[in-house]
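Handout, page 2. Input:
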Amino acid sequence: TTEIYTLSLHDALPIWPLFIWHATNAPHIHGEDGGQPWTGKPELLERFAHVCESGCDDTAAVVLAMDQAFEATNTALQRHGMLDNALQVFLSDNGGPCHTSLCNRGLRGCKSTGFEGGHRAPALLHYPALLGRAERRTSAPVHMVDFFATLVEVAAVAQGSKGTRALLSAREAAPSSVSMWRQLDTARSFSESVPH
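Output:
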């Protein structure tokens, strides 16, 4: 379904303005029991058979399938001249699964636990039109609810003075959502040292 969704998405391009929620079903597992409802495609499994510990080849194969889906989406956006003016957010809603040490190595716990391994996950934002092309990072903690205020503020910044009303409305609608735009806009470059 990851590939089917990606192909149908590309049929819709170009449309402007455009909002895409490209949530793949791979990789996705259910809680601490480590249930694994998916398996990798045979041609992708073959690529990892010689490097993975027991059980990680499926995880690696579905992550690669997801990467290929996002690469295809970026290629389609680029082909239609939309990539530089597209805000892309890549994130996870929880830590990795318990059944493999690949996902949470170095962190205590996993998905469905209260430990750091259950909720710490990286996020990536790509928006050359406003953030430029310099690679930057921040260690500021962000909760899922904060993405609403952050994305509204990004849209408001992109609209200039016209965006002020939308920003005020968003603050009233979701007072618990805190915009992280300032932290992202002033984040250090990758070349600077960042504590781990």
